[in-house]
Amino acid sequence: MPYLPRMQVAVIGADLLRHPDMNRGMAFTEEERDRFALRGLLPPRVLDINMQETRVLENLRRKDTDLEKYLFLMGLQDRNTALFYRVLVRNIEELMPIVYTPTVGLACQLYGHIFRRPRGLYVSINDAGHVREILQNWPERDVRVIVVTDGERILGLGDLGTHGMGIPVGKLNLYSACGGVDPRHCLPVTIDVGTNNTKYLDDPLYTGLVQQRVRGEAYDALIDEFMRAVRQSYRHTLVQFEDFGNSNAFRLLEKYRHHFCTFNDDIQGTASVALAGVLAGLKIAKKKISELTFLFLGAGEAGIGIGELIASAIESEGVSHEEAIKKCWFIDSKGLITSARGNLQEHKKRFAHDHDSAPQDLLEIVRDIKPNVLIGVSAQPGVFTRDVVQLMAELNEHPFIFPLSNPTSKAECTAEQAFSWSQGRCIFCSGSPFGPVHLGNQTFYPGQGNNAYIFPGVGLGAIAAEAEQVTDEMFTAAAHKLASMVTDEDLANGTIYPSLTRIREVSVEIACGVANMVFDLGLTRLSKPDDVRALVLENVYDPAYSSHAAARL
Asked: Is the pTM for the entire model greater than 0.90?
């Protein structure tokens, strides 16, 4: 059974109402109002959490813009943690686009202008030598998951500096809402080494250091000090790297993945959810993954991560590693990546194949490579044109069209364009949500390749089993589990992911698989319990009002 955390009340009266983890507003009972000196501080009527949720939704739905809804929900989180997560969990389809992409992208861009109160921890380059002291300032001692960014590549929006804090905050909201990780165990962190975005350097309301980004040895030393401080400060903590620039993301993952419980969601989480979409789509295409050719527009963290995991899946069908890699073609800003190209970044070299020419135009490249799967991770809106999608539909009975760039404004095409230009035959997945598409007498419900299908479950499993490492095999297993939960009805409706209303169920299943792998691979000091599922469920947070144990001051 999910647990309800029992909280020791060390504050009473008005101070209790100001404590979001203990406040329950008008839901305090008559007896509690007397015990905790709340009599007269609340309206006389007692309202249960169901009525409070009704009032929240009524007020939320009055807001004219998604940004106003975002600010309203963040205000609720500031006042009443349990009610915030209760509303989010029970209305996840409606509210995920508000608390995360696409709305969080706009919130990050305007972060300094909509700033209300600090969230999480900020570690700046000026704090070098004192990072552990900063971690000690965080009020919770039992931190089990950290999402950390340096703000250099926020979604498809580029360098937002400390305004990128909205991403760790949003990701951790989803850890709790989708995966059931206790919000008290979550810590958002932003590493501030400056920003190269002149817009923010010139903005008097920018929240970070007004300087160009620090790179090189000083940057590496700060990240290293941060990772050591996490290990020294907390008993067992998962660290998720989020939205680091390409120049740092790959090398930091390789540096720490074998020595810390850590992963990079942009590389591994995105890869897993994309692979799950492909695996589910195979049921429509009636093909094996080894029979497909993949073309990626974009060769950064997300694209390369997806390519690596897909190549691994192809290998599992008996194809050699070299041949599996050759199934994946990449396009970067200079055109098709081939072996004839010089000065390639290290992470691109393994996907540089021999080819007679190196065309730059996407339509020409599609005609040349003849891919079955077209994946966009380029943040170039509208680049999947009518001609490109129609050519994919000529080449394939069921072309895979995956415009994965976030937020919605950066999507390579819309769901309506993909379905209409392919006469409803495409297998579609996007990075941001799109509404239903009506085509003739058929309605399609586009699937969103949201990393929230993956990282909360992987994190929950790693936390429950106290994993010392998170491996690529865990993300492959998560992809297969997610794909297996797609129903025939889902596929008939044009979606290759389960309904978001099932996301907690999905997360628990993924967590059980990850935890079992942790025990079987010996990646924990814990002994494997007889019932791993029970261990996972013991760690699932239920957003309801807990029993208070009074400790009057």
From this structure: yes
